[in-house]
Automatic annotation (TrEMBL):
Molecular function (Gene Ontology), one example: L-lactate dehydrogenase (NAD+) activity
Species annotation: Chloropsis cyanopogon
Protein name (Swiss-Prot/TrEMBL): UEVLD enzyme
Gene that produces this protein: Uevld
Job of this protein: Interconverts simultaneously and stereospecifically pyruvate and lactate with concomitant interconversion of NADH and NAD(+).
Reaction(s) the record says it catalyses: (S)-lactate + NAD(+) = pyruvate + NADH + H(+)
InterPro entries xrefs: L-lactate/malate_DH, Lactate/malate_DH_C, Lactate/malate_DH_N, Lactate_DH/Glyco_Ohase_4_C, NAD(P)-bd_dom_sf, UBQ-conjugating_enzyme/RWD, UEV_N
Gene Ontology biological-process annotations: lactate metabolic process; protein transport
Record-linked CDD domains: LDH_1, UEV_TSG101-like
Amino acid sequence: QYKFRDLTIEELKDVSKTYPNFTFSMNTYTFKDGSQKDLLNFSGTVPVKYGNSYNIPIHLWILDSHPFAPPICFLKPTANMGIAVGKHVDARGRIYLPYLQSWSHPKSTLIGLIKEMIAKFEEELPLYSLSSSDAARQSELLSYIAKITEGETDMKSRSKTGGRNEGCFNKITVVGAGDLGIACVLAVAAKDVADKVVLLDLSEGAAKGGTMDLEIFAVPNVEISKDFSASADSKVVVLTVNSLGNAQTYLEVIQSNVDLFRGIIPAVSHYSQNAVLLVASHPVEVMTFVSWKLSSFPKSRVIGVGANLDSERFQYLLTNLLKAEVLAKDAWVVGEQGEDKVPSWASCNAVANQTEAMAARNSREKVANRAMEVLKGKGQRSWSVGLSVADLADSILKDKRKVHSVSTLAKGCCNINSEVFLSLPCVLGTSGVVEMVRLEEDPLVQEKLQSSAGSIHDLQQQLKL
């Protein structure tokens, strides 16, 4: 079955010698199109130093064209571990590395791949331990949702006042019925953001899993549909879908997402021509750009969730953990999701001279570094991203004019000349981005943003829109 059997066996022998804990087997792998193949695979743990020493469980599938094609790589978390979605890991635990993107025999080897995997994991841990506090917060959210289904919210008091004006009817459509899509629906319902929520389930076959449970327990004002017309006249459309294809490189995975969006964005844009598109799909910067191009909407009405969750956490840590409430007021996490995000502050003209400005910057940097270290271990679970989406939708629908760090067109900011989306602090209202908040001129932040813009632009140039 394996075209280059001897070469493959030699490589696996090397892996076994270097990592004796790995176990090898032949199992069936199912690709996106439903096709299946019996493939060699191995799993075990790799040692990672991130302050302490950790053993990160991984699972690699060897394609039958190995070593001329890279393996398919996944994390294999235990029951008490959560996946920290980042630049190199998606929500399913699939691993994407530069080494895989540039795979070329004989230069590329399994040993070399594992070494790069360890190096990247030491920069950003891909897993976190599920703490009791995380479990408690999840329980609190689910408890609130249970109350909604029992009619214990302020629905009665609202009906006494005659309800909302029909002309101000707030409708949200969530596209994608995976874990993230359902988390968004539940969070929007829990925060009472909209009058109606439509969940567009684009999966094939009958309702199953989470969508079936939503139907069984009948969350009020939530409709599940497979028809795009159900999304008509939405004020916010949330994109949560990601292609679960058999693509082998990071570029192919993104291209697969682009192909998926080609069938979605024009349809939702047709039925909700005045909506704000809110993108939560991965990678958020690129998929927000793709949504903007495919929709032909103005840039103000196409935004990504960006670093909103990280910024809210960052401000919370500054205020509650580090007791730096004054610093937290205008603090943001900006840039791109993953290891290249960076803390920044809104521009302030109150500092009298350059010496004072430098002193203020140095004191902030120490506190910011502590907060960012804490953030590294938090990860982004579906339900936490769902809460972030509900937070953004709330600001948009209620025209709160609140500042959020969201993915927006960054051209013209920080000497960026390309059409890329990066997370920047923006005032949000019913029309999406009302204005962008000016950042303090920090050379390190600008360098980071320009670097991110360059790599994202290069990636976008390789996509077929």
